[in-house]
């Protein structure tokens, strides 16, 4: 089994100052064997860190679509921001990548009494509350994605994690975990333990046997991102 953090940022994101070398050493410290680098709208940092060979990297991108964020994994080309979610998914698919919806209910509590939807599998229809929370969560988009992030360490509420898990289960999507680290200390705070894989296809198969674990970061980590935006360091 290997331990993977599926959602992290480097200084190639405008709200993060973590240099690539520090990402690699933090993986070693946190016992992470493989890391998905998912910078905002770029894969440049992921490719560069992968080329160093200092840590095993899944090249990803957290893409700002016209209606919310999607993560593409196993990318070889960047996907431009601002496209519709379905066009974004098509761009990821064309290069053999996988699609995940990160923090589907954003950072705020999603009360456990609220339904995430009705029906299940292909017949799942997201509830009004879900649609209000994230415009990207349409039946059409949910039918096209592979995974939903259910543990995001920067989402401080247990109820929200539970609601994300309900969404994944009802729609039959593979649940994932990622720290969403914007500082080096956060790397590894959420992770999956999974059988080893060699490409996107075997990764997806291995994720069916993955065990997710994670802890929530203090809300103060968001100040670090704000600070990073104000005090940009060059990579
Ligand atoms: Zn992120």
| Element string (H = helix, E = strand) | EHEHEEHEEEHHEHEEHEH
Report the count of strand segments: 11
Spatial gap, N to C terminus: 32 Å
In terms of DSSP E residues, the strand content is 15-25%
Tell me the CATH architecture. Alpha-Beta Barrel
Look at the structure and give the CATH class. Alpha Beta
Structural class: alpha/beta
Rg, alpha carbons:
16 Å
Name the shape in a single word. globular
Classify the helix fraction into a percent range: 25-40%
List the domain count as a whole number. Answer: 1
What is the CATH topology classification name? TIM Barrel
What is the average of the pLDDT values?
94
Low-confidence spans: pLDDT under 50, at least 5 residues?
A: none
Output the strand order for the largest sheet. Answer: 9-8-5-4-3-2-1-10-11
Kindly summarize this structure in a few lines.
The protein is an alpha/beta fold and 235 residues long. The chain contains eight helices and eleven strands.
How would you sum up this structure, described in words?
- The chain is α/β, with parallel strands linked by helices.
- 31% of the residues lie in helices and 25% in strands.
- It contains eight helices and eleven strands.
- The protein has helices at 20-30, 44-52, 85-94, 128-133, 139-142, 158-171, 200-207, 221-230; strands at residues 2-8, 34-40, 56-65, 68-73, 98-101, 117-118, 125-126, 147-152, 174-178, 190-194, 211-214.
- The strands form two sheets. A nine-stranded mixed beta sheet has the order 9-8-5-4-3-2-1-10-11, with helices on both faces. Strands 6-7 form a two-stranded antiparallel sheet.
- The longest helix is centred in the C-terminal third of the chain and has 14 residues, at 158-171.
- The chain is globular and about 45 Å long.
- The protein starts with a strand and ends in a 5-residue tail after the last helix.
- The structure holds zinc ion.
- Residues 7, 9, 38, 62, 102, 180 line the site of zinc ion.
